Amino acid sequence: MFARGLCREKSIKIAKFKSAVIAYESFFLYLLIMVKESAFDLHDPIVALATPWGESAIAVIRTSGEDCIKKIAGVFKGTDNLSNKKSHTVNYGTLYNPKDGELVDEVLAAVYHSPHSYTGEDAVELFCHGSPAALQKTLKLLYEQGFRQADAGEFTLRAFLNGKIDLTKAEAVNEIIRAKSDKARRLALHRLAGSIEKTINSFKTRLVDMLSALEVMIDYPDEQYEHNEFPPQEFKKLLAEVHALLATYKAGRIYQEGVGVALAGRTNSGKSTLFNLMLKEDRSIVSDVHGTTRDFIEGSIAIKGIPVRLYDTAGLRSTDHPVEAEGIRRTDKIITNADIIIYLIDGSLGVCGEDEKFINQYKSGGRLLVVWNKCDLSGKKVPKAFIPISSLTGQGLQNMEKAIVFLLLGSSPLESDGPVIDSLRQKQSLEQALAALKRVETGYKNRVSYDLLAVDIKEALDAFGHITGQVTSEEILRAMFSKFCVGK
Amino acid sequence: MDFDAIAIGGGHAGIEAGLALARLGFKTLFITQNLDCIAKLSCNPAIGGLAKGNVVREIDALGGQMARLIDSTMIQFRILNRSKGPAVQAPRAQADKAAYALLAKQTLEQQKNLSLFQDTVVDLICDGKMKKIKGVVTERGNRITAGVVVLTTGTFMEARIFIGDYMTSSGRLGEPAAVGLGESLRKIGFEVGRLKTGTPARVLKSSLDFSRLEEQKGDEIQLPFSFSNHRIERPHVPCYITYTTEATHKIIRDNIKYSPLYGGKIVGIGPRYCPSIEDKVMRFPDRGRHQIFVEPEGLNTEEMYLNGISSSLPEQVQERFLRTVPGLERVVIMKPGYAVEYDYINPTQLYPNLESKLLQGLFIAGQTNGTSGYEEAAAQGLLAGINAALKLQKKKPLILSRAESYIGVLIDDLVTLGTKEPYRLFTSRAEYRLCLRHDTADMRLFSKGYAIGLQNNEANERFEAKVEKLNAINELLHKRKVDTHDISAEPLLSKYKGKTFARILKDPAFTMSVLKKLDGALNDFSAALSTQIELDIKYAGYLKRQQEQVARFKRLEKLIIPSEFNYDSAKGLSKESREKLKTIRPLSVGQASRISGVRNSDIAVLLVYLTKKSGA
Ligand SMILES: Cc1cc2nc3c(=O)[nH]c(=O)nc-3n(C[C@H](O)[C@H](O)[C@H](O)COP(=O)(O)OP(=O)(O)OC[C@H]3O[C@@H](n4cnc5c(N)ncnc54)[C@H](O)[C@@H]3O)c2cc1C
Ligand SMILES: Nc1nc2c(ncn2[C@@H]2O[C@H](COP(=O)(O)OP(=O)(O)OP(=O)(O)O)[C@@H](O)[C@H]2O)c(=O)[nH]1
Ligand SMILES: [Mg+2]
C-alpha cells in the first residue's frame, strides 16, 4: 500500500520488517483490535506518506479522519481558511509551525469532505516537495497536530468500513499486503518479524509460569506449599527486558523518520569541509576566510542506515555585520532543534574560551558530540573527551559516525539484531504491559493479595496478547498442573 | 402430551432442572433409575470451595435449591483463602450426606407440578424428521411424551466401574449403569465420548488412630450459602489431616501394573486436576508425601472419606498402602476406592442455553456434558431447567455472561471449547473474578431470577431492603469524616483528620472493625453487609481496572452473529475456522473469538461481514 521503505539499506530492512510484522495478520487484525481497544477508534486522524521516500519532484502525504481538515487548516496559510474550502478543491498555500511561525513547506492541499473521499471521511492530500528533509518536517508538524501514523492498510480498511469499496476490493488489498509479507519472507526478513514474536512469546510464557504459581495457591488453598512460589528475581528480570524492548521503539522511529544533525563551531573550524565530506558532494563553499558560510545549508545522508538531515551552519563569533548576525541567529535555531550537534574544534588552534562556553551550555543535553578537526595538522595532543577527525583526509570519520549512532541509540540494539518495535500500536501495548507489570512490582512489595496481583499480571498478558495473540485460561491451567501436584 | 417437561436423572443437575420447571408452572416428570438414590454426593462429602462456593451462591440468587440444601445439612463450615485476597475467598461446607440426600428428596416430593417416577430412560422419541424431541422410552417400555426434555445422566450412561481386575456395569458402587441410552444417542447422531473419574476408599471411623491425625476444625461461625438464610446453627464436626509416606509410594509403584488405568483397561480420560494417588506417585516421583484429609460422611455414620487418595488399585493393595499412613495403621475399609468410566456428550453440540443443536427441545446438563462436581452439575441443571421453561414460554433464553457469573464462565467454556477431560471450575478460568465475589452473587443475579419467576415477591423485598442498607453504609462511609474525637480514640488516625471513613478504608492498615468502634451507626448493619462495602471500597482501584477490562470484553460480546449466518459465503475464512464456526455456531463475535483454533484474522473477516451487513 504505502511504500514507506527508505532508500538506504538498513532502512529498507526496517521498513520491510515493519510491513512484515504488521501485514502479517493483515488489516483485518487491525480491525479486531480497534473494536476491542478504545485507544484506536475508527475515526481518529491518521497520516501516511503515499509516495516513496527519497528525493523526488513531488511527494504526497495523505491524511484522513475526524477534524482532519480543521487540524490542517490550523497550520495552513493560503488565500482563505482551508476549513471553508469546498470538497474536491486544490489549494495552494504554505505549511507553517504555529509555535514559531516557521515555514515548513510550500504545498498544494486537496480537500475532500466526508463522505466524498477515498476513506469516506474528511480527508486532505498534501502535495509537497519530495525531499526527505522537508517531508520529515511536515510529518513531524502533523504528528504535533494530533495525527497518528496510519497502520498498513488502514486507509483501505476505513474505506471499506465506510462503504466506499466492497469486500472483493478490500480483499484484493489484503492480498497485496499478504503478498508483500510473503516477499518479505523470501527476503529472509521473516527472521526479523519472527524475533519480535519470539521475544513477546517468551515474556508471555514466563509470565504465565509466574501466574500459574499464584493461581495454584489460590485454587488449592488446602495444599501445602514449601515456599512462596512467586519468584521476585525472575520478575525483575522480565520487567527489565520489557523495558528494553520498549526502548527500541525510539530506535525504530529513528530509522523510520531520521534525525537532524547540526554542524557547529567557530568560523573556519572546518564545518563546511566536513559537511561536504559527509555528503560526498561539493555543496558548501570552503575557504580559509572566516565567516564564509552565512546561511545554513542542508543535505540528506544516511549514517548506518539512519536517515540524517545534515546542516552546515554559519560559524559562531561575535560580529557587527547584520547579515552574518542573522546567519548566527539561524544557526542558533538549528542547533536548538537538532537531535545531534557536532561541535568542531579547530585542532590547529586548540580549545578556546568560546568553545568551552558552548560545550558547557550543551554538554548535559545528551546530544552534543565534540570533534577535534584538522587532526592531520595539529601537533597538539587531542584531549580524551574529543574525537579526532580530519575533514580533509576523512580520518576519524568512521569513529565519529559510530559515536553519533551511539548517542542516538545507546548500545545500539539494532546492531545486535535483536527485535525492534516501530509501530505505535506495539509501543502502546508494551507500555500498557509495562505499566501493569510495574503495578505488580509495587503490589508485591506492599504485599497485596494474590488475586489482586493476578489482575495486573493478566492485564500485562492481555497487552502482550495484542501483539502476538491472547493467552487463554487453558494455558494457565496447563502450566498449573504440569508443575504442581494438587488435587483429591 | 403426557407432560410439559421431563427431567431425566436424580443427581444434582436433574433435581435443579426438575424443580425449576415445576416452579415455573410446568407439569414436569422427574424420572430416575432409583428414587432412593436422589441427590447423592457420590464423591467427597462437601459442597462449595473455590469458585464452586460462588456457584452455589449464584444458584441461590437465581432461585435454585443447592444452597438451601447445604445450609440445612452442613456439619462444618469454612471460608477458604482468607489470606489470599477478597476475590478468591470462598465458602465450603462439609455435608451430612444422608441428610442432604433425604432433604433433596423431600423437597422434590413436596414440589407442586412435579411427579417423581422410578424407571430408566433407554431411548428418545423424536419427530419424523429427527429434528425435535417428543418424549422418552424407558427400560420397562413406558413411552412418555413431553414438549421439552432435560437429560442429566451423570456418571451412569453406559458406565463401568473398576477396582483392580474387577470391572462391572455400574454408575456408582452398588448402583447399576443406565444402559441403552448412549447407543440411542449415537444413532441419532450425537458425538459421544468416554471420560473417567475416581473416588477414594471410605473407612471405618473407629479403626482410625486419632492421636496420630492432625485435627482441622471449621470456622466458629457458620455462614449461610443461601441469601434467604440469616444464620446457621448446625453441629460442628472436625476433619483430620495425615500424609502418605515413602512406604505408601513404594507399594503403589510396585503394584502399578494392576491399575486398570495403567494396565490400559480404562480408555476414558481422567481429570488432570484431580489425579488419583497412582497418578500423583507416578507423575511426581520427587514428592516425599501427599496430604490426605479425613472427612466425616455424616453425623449418623461411621464412614469416613479419605480426600486426596482416590485409587482404583485392587482392594488388597488399597488396604496395604493405606496402612502405611500414620493414623491409618489398622484401617478398616468399608467401601473401596474405584474408578468409573462413562459416556459423555461433547458439549459443543449444545447452544449456550444448553439446548442441543441436533434435537430441538432436548436440553443436556451436568456430568453428561463432561463436567465433574456437584456444583457444576447443579448450575447447569438450573440453567437447563430455566431455559427449557423459557422455550416453552417462547421467551428469550437466559445466557449468563462470563463477566457476571462463574456459571457464565462454566457454560461458555463448555459450549465454546468443549472438553476432552472432566471439566471443573477454577477461579482462574474466570477472566474477571474480582467482579465475581461470592458475596455479590445476589447483586449480580437476583434480578434475573426474579424476572424469570424463580424468586417471589417476598424475596424481592428482602433483596431491595438489602440494597438500601448497602447504599446507606456506603453513604455513611463517604460522608462521615474523622474528627478530633475519633483521633483521641484511635491516635493512628491522626493523619486522616478531616478525611472520610471511606478514605481510611483504602489504607491497608485499617479495617472496618476500627471504624465500627468509632461510629455506632456502623454497628447497625450486619457484618456481611459492611464487609461487602469494605471490600468494594478497599479494592476500588483494582475493581475499576477490571471493570474497564469487562467493558472491552463486552464490545465483542455485543456483536451478535445472526443464527442464519452463512459461513460458507464468508470468503476469507480459513478452512479450519470455517468448520469450527459451523459446528459451534457462536451467538456473538465474542464467543467466536474464544473457539480454540479460530485465529484473529478469521474473527476479523467475520467482523467485516457483520459490520457490512449492518450497513456500517
Ligand atoms: C466414582 C465417582 C467419582 C467422582 N469423582 C469426582 C471428583 O473427583 N470430583 C468431582 O468434583 N466430582 C466427582 N464425582 C462427580 C460428582 O458426583 C458429579 O459431578 C455430580 O454428582 C454430577 O451430578 P449429575 O447430576 O450430573 O449426575 P449424577 O449425580 O451422577 O446423577 C445422575 C443421576 O441420573 C440417573 N440416571 C442416569 N441415567 C439415567 C437414565 N437413563 N434414566 C434415568 N435415570 C438416569 C442416575 O441414576 C443418577 O441418579 C464423582 C462421581 C463418582 C461416581
Ligand atoms: N588541514 C586541514 N585543513 C582543514 C580541515 N578542515 C578544514 N580545513 C581548512 O580550514 C579552512 C576553513 O574551512 P571551512 O570548512 O570553510 O570552515 P568553516 O567552519 O565552514 O568556516 P566558516 O564557514 O567561515 O564558519 C579551509 O581552508 C579548509 O581547507 C582539516 O581537517 N585539515
Ligand atoms: Mg563554512
Primary descriptors:
heterodimer, A: 488 residues, alpha/beta, Gyrase A, domain 2, 7-stranded mixed sheet, B: 616 residues, alpha+beta, 6-stranded antiparallel sheet, 21 strands, 36% helix, globular, binds flavin-adenine dinucleotide, binds guanosine-5'-triphosphate, binds magnesium ion
User: How many helices of chain A does DSSP assign?
Assistant: 15
- State the assembly state of the protein chains: heterodimer
Q: Return the domain count of chain A.
A: 3
Unreliable residue runs of chain B: none
* Shape summary of chain B: globular
Strand elements of chain A, count: 13
For the CA atoms, what is the radius of gyration of chain A?
27 Å
Shape of chain A: flat
Helix and strand composition category of chain A:
alpha/beta
What portion of the residues of chain B fall into strands of 2 or more residues? Answer: 15-25%
Portion of residues in helices of chain A?
40-55%
Which small molecules are bound?
Answer: flavin-adenine dinucleotide, guanosine-5'-triphosphate, magnesium ion
| Strand runs of chain B, count | 21
Total helices of chain B: the number is: 20
- Calculate the mean pLDDT score of chain A and round it: 78
Query: What do the pLDDT scores of chain B average to?
Result: 93
Terminus-to-terminus distance of chain B: 48 Å
Which structural class fits the helix and strand makeup of chain B?
alpha+beta
Biggest interface and residues each: A-B, 52 and 64 residues
CATH topology annotation of the largest domain in chain A: Four Helix Bundle (Hemerythrin (Met), subunit A)
Helix content of chain B: 25-40%
